[in-house]
């Protein structure tokens, strides 16, 4: 009985919090010129959900565990929370997309959740991005990198840019809009590369002026490093997965174990003199294994920009880490 009272009180607090955030976020987003942003992020411990807005649609993520509840209780609580969200924002069922992560193994975690393909275009400052709210756990646009995309766009002017593990190409679009002379986007997934091309088209960027390569990135780096005529880049963006054992890759990938090798190989073999690498990861326990003195001895600085890169609408300041590596 006491537990039910605590939950009832927490849900009332959640509803009140949403009412407040609704007004605040709408005004802020309008001033910022953005149509996709975070509304609520586990503000109340007893209501561990995340709510994101995309134009007039919303995505609700269930972040609760099964530690103190059954699967049935978990589903019922999420349903109650969903009803509160619909009520506060006056949404139809079709306007709220529910995401819940279940225990999955191997390739199951990357499979589609649905086939509805609820796709729409959102504006972020001067850029436009295609998002899919229904079919995957992620929507195709990482909102926590909004500030980083803006910075990257400014840094890309007149630069040759390489975007590794490019996903749907949002950073490639940012670079091209910022005046990059040429952008090379590489990913293992043809689906994501096609998505990236759609994002280029949405922004009036000619895809034929840039390169899109579908391949195993780790193997590509090995092969290209042996090519004496290989391209060098002024600006490299690297945001790899935390871990991957995909059968399409010749070797397993682990961000903590292998970031040192990939960063140093990029420095020596792919970065042009005076160039920069922007390296990001969402692995919360990540530790940079290249010490400051080693960066300096190689003629570089490594600036940790993690905290300043977290947008205002995010409570979680550990959602990603960002390092800017540049020649001295």
Automatic annotation (TrEMBL):
BP terms from Gene Ontology: methylation
GO molecular function: methyltransferase activity
Name this protein carries in UniProt: SAM-dependent methyltransferase
Domain S-adenosylmethionine-dependent methyltransferase: 115-278
Coiled-coil region list: 4-31
Keywords for this protein: Coiled coil, Methyltransferase, S-adenosyl-L-methionine, Transferase
UniProt cross-references to InterPro entries, sorted A to Z: SAM-dep_methyl-trfase (IPR019614), SAM-dependent_MTases_sf (IPR029063)
Entry keyword S-adenosyl-L-methionine: yes
Domain of life from the UniProt record: Bacteria
């Amino acid at each position: 009985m006491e537990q039910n009272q605590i939950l009832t009180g927490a849900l009332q607090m959640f509803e009140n919090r949403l009412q407040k955030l609704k007004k605040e976020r709408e005004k802020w987003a309008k001033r910022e010129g953005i149509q996709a942003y975070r509304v609520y992020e586990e503000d109340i411990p007893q209501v561990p959900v995340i709510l994101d807005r995309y134009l007039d649609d919303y995505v609700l993520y269930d972040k609760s565990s099964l530690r103190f509840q059954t699967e049935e209780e978990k589903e019922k609580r999420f349903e109650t929370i969903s009803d509160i969200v619909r009520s506060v924002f006056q949404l139809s069922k079709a306007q709220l997309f529910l995401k819940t992560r279940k225990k999955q193994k191997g390739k199951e975690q990357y499979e589609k959740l649905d086939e509805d393909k609820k796709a729409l275009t959102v504006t972020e400052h001067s850029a436009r991005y295609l998002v899919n709210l229904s079919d995957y756990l992620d929507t195709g646009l990482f909102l926590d990198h909004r500030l980083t995309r803006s910075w990257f766009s400014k840094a890309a002017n007149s630069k040759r840019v390489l975007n590794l593990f490019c996903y749907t190409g949002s950073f490639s679009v940012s670079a091209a809009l910022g005046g990059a002379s040429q952008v090379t986007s590489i990913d293992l997934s043809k689906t994501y590369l096609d998505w990236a091309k759609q994002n280029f088209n949405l922004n009036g960027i000619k895809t034929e002026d840039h390169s899109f390569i579908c391949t195993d990135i780790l193997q590509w780096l090995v092969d290209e490093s042996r090519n004496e005529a290989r391209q060098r880049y002024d600006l490299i963006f690297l945001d790899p997965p935390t871990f991957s054992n995909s059968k399409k890759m010749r070797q397993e990938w682990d961000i903590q174990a292998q970031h040192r090798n990939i960063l140093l190989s990029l420095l020596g073999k792919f970065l042009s003199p005076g160039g920069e690498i922007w390296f990001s990861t969402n692995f919360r326990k990540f530790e940079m294994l290249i010490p400051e003195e080693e960066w300096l001895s190689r003629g570089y600085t490594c600036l940790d920009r993690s905290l300043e890169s977290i947008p205002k609408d995010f409570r979680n300041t550990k959602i990603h880490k960002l390092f800017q590596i540049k020649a001295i």
